[in-house]
Specification:
about 625 residues; alpha/beta; 5-stranded antiparallel β-sheet
Length: about 625
């Protein structure tokens, strides 16, 4: 006779908010003992007349329901892909953001790959993993990071703005070395570490830093750039009791790791840490919840500090940690006016910066950061493919339209008699960037990069020019100041020790914070201004979007002071948005009330869709987004 719990409590994989709860199914006798917590199963769904996938959250012997329960139809997979600690995190994060837990599970658990899973199940037990020795992070107060990891503390770490050679000709930012050392401390204690970074560029640095001090068997990469089979294979490696370092982008914070010792976040202010899918839980918020839930250490590492982390420091939830006194970066704010050299004037570069850059080019690479994001197409020789350069100043040629005459992007000279200096060809073609460049060598080279796309240079850049600062700072956004400071600080950190950085066209508090390398002071003053204006993160906000009727009903149903209601304003035909501002202590209550309104609206819309011949259009659905700063951008 089969022995074991006879009732499975499951989350149904459905986007409908009204289904965001546990459903009970009887486990048939043939499956008792095989149905386990965390596995995927298939269950009947009567209203749809079909079977749907679900995750087993709990197994019990009895429930309050006295009727006849439907039975679990089948086991989709015996692999417990939804770890209990991740299920708890998904529920808490969804409740905080007035969303559905299953939406977070879709982000946390990759799609099943049957062949990969079959091979994983058939593989022998995990071989013995090599022992790990702890590496002490250098450049900080002795023992502070180690004690935080040991005690489950939380630190906001101001990263050291230098490059480090971790292997022959392999250079990474000091921040990556710091996180790698912290991870080694966690592994040496027999606990896993999760390290989250914004994008693949940062992940490459972190992987190189980890490879220099840890055995490859201890490192798992888990990110959205992997193929589906590779990602699922990496995910399955995380299931188990072995202590691992798991690195990836924002979704890695949900990786299964029941014995978790550390969560480390690099550059939490980067918008890539913001989840674009409902319920829009950022990496930072998920990490905060998981750290509290599992009692693990949490490190926020960055060259500049977000206002969200600064608020946590000020309320005492996170401790600030800065490097021990050392040589600060040499940042020189420079007036926007240019004079002297004609080419420097046409290229928007002050003469002093121009001279330093020319001198630095004699010994190594020089970085020029410009404002426009993305990869710009380039002109190249049709015959040999070499990039087309100006015959006067060696600047890159550009073409505004297909019929216009190419001109130099630096000096503006028209390329009417252009010829290739490599093959003497005279025909040009427009080509896109073949691939992003992650690194450059120590040889002299002028590297022009958009913000955030700067390659690392072996030994560091001999000079850095930050152009278009006034254009960057003129962007209409609540975060424009902290974004600019983050972009510039990350570029400054690519310079060699003692190499000059010129910030062009920017003065005031931003220039002062960068030149004195006191970004935390700027974040502190910015937070003071946000408190006065009641802007996030000094307060929490929730934007409620939908039809005027639905939004009005939702706002009327919540218990929030009228003076903290902004709107409604029209955002699209038939849709309006109202913003609610509230204190952090009100968050749980407000999220519960708004979630109830979302469910009520979804249920009424479903009835409207089902009604045959219902007059008028179907009402716009109600959407709620917490901690959304986009409406404050103008």
């Amino acid at each position: 006779m089969a022995v074991g719990p006879s009732i499975a409590r499951v989350w149904v994989d459905s986007p409908l908010p009204q289904l965001d709860r546990l459903f009970d199914y009887r486990v048939p006798e043939a499956l008792v003992g095989e149905v386990a917590v965390g596995i995927r199963v298939r269950v009947p769904w009567r209203s749809a007349g079909r079977f749907v996938d679900a995750y087993v959250i709990d197994l019990v012997d009895s429930v309050e329901f006295t009727g006849i329960l439907s039975e679990v139809e089948a086991i989709v997979s015996i692999v417990p892909v939804l770890a209990p600690e991740v299920a708890v995190l998904a529920r808490r994060a969804a409740d905080r953001a007035a969303g559905s837990a299953i939406d977070i599970v879709r982000v946390a658990v990759p799609g099943r790959q049957a062949r990969v899973e079959k091979a994983w199940l058939a593989a022998p037990p995990t071989p013995y993993l090599p022992a790990v020795s702890a590496v002490v992070p250098s450049g900080y107060v002795a023992g502070r990071i180690e004690s935080a990891i040991s005690d489950g503390g939380r630190l906001a770490i101001n990263a050291i703005p230098l490059g480090v050679e971790v292997a022959e000709a392999v250079w990474v930012g000091h921040w990556a070395v710091t996180l790698a050392a912290a991870a080694s401390i966690s592994l040496a204690a027999g606990k896993s570490a999760i390290l989250a970074v914004p994008d693949y560029r940062d992940q490459e640095q972190l992987a190189d830093a980890l490879a220099a001090i840890l055995p490859a068997q201890r490192i798992v990469r888990l990110d959205a750039r992997q193929s589906n089979p590779d990602r699922y294979r990496a995910f399955l490696r995380c299931i188990g009791d072995e202590a691992l370092v798991i690195i990836g982008n924002r979704s890695v914070v949900y990786a299964p790791a029941k014995n978790l010792g550390l969560i480390g976040l690099w550059d939490d202010g980067d918008p890539l840490h913001s989840e674009p899918l409902a319920p829009y839980v950022s990496t930072r918020d998920a990490a905060l919840l998981r750290s509290e839930q599992q009692g693990c250490a949490l490190l926020f590492v960055g060259h500049s500090r977000s206002t969200e982390v600064e608020r946590l420091v000020e309320v005492g939830w996170v401790e600030s940690l800065s490097p021990t006194p050392s040589v600060l970066p040499k940042v020189i704010p420079t007036a926007a006016q240019v004079s002297g050299d004609r080419l420097a004037a046409q290229a928007r570069i002050p003469s002093s910066a121009w001279r330093e850059a020319r001198n630095a080019l004699e010994t190594g690479p020089v970085l020029v950061q410009v404002a426009r994001p993305g990869y710009a197409p380039r002109l190249a020789c049709v015959d040999c493919g070499q990039s087309a350069r100006c015959l006067r100043c060696e600047g890159p040629l550009a073409q505004k339209t297909s019929r216009s005459v190419p001109a130099c992007s630096w000096c503006g000279a028209l390329a009417v008699d252009w010829h290739c200096d490599n093959c003497e060809g005279t025909r040009l073609k427009l080509v896109g960037a073949d691939r992003p460049i992650l690194t450059v060598g120590p040889e002299p080279a002028l590297v022009i990069a958009t913000r955030g796309a700067e390659p690392r240079a072996a030994g560091g850049y001999r000079a850095v020019l930050l152009l278009d600062g006034d254009r960057m700072a003129a962007r209409e956004s609540l975060r424009v100041g902290e974004d600019c400071l983050r972009w510039w600080s990350n570029a400054v950190a690519l310079a060699a020790r003692g190499a000059p950085t010129f910030l062009v066209g920017v003065g005031g508090a931003l220039a002062s914070a960068l030149s004195t390398w006191r970004q935390s002071d700027y974040a502190r003053s910015e937070l003071v201004d946000r408190r006065r204006l009641r802007f996030p993160p000094a307060v929490r906000v929730a934007s409620v979007t939908g039809s005027l009727e639905a939004v009005s009903k939702a706002v009327a149903a919540v218990s929030i002071a009228p003076e903290d209601i902004l709107g409604p304003v029209e955002t699209a035909p038939g849709a309006v948005r109202t913003i609610l501002r509230f204190d952090y202590a009100q968050g749980a209550e407000l999220a519960t009330e708004l979630r109830a309104e979302v469910i009520r609206n979804a249920t009424s819309r479903r009835r409207s869709l089902a009604a045959k011949g219902a007059p008028g259009p179907i009402p716009v659905g109600l959407r709620v987004r917490f901690d959304d700063v986009e409406p404050f951008g103008a």
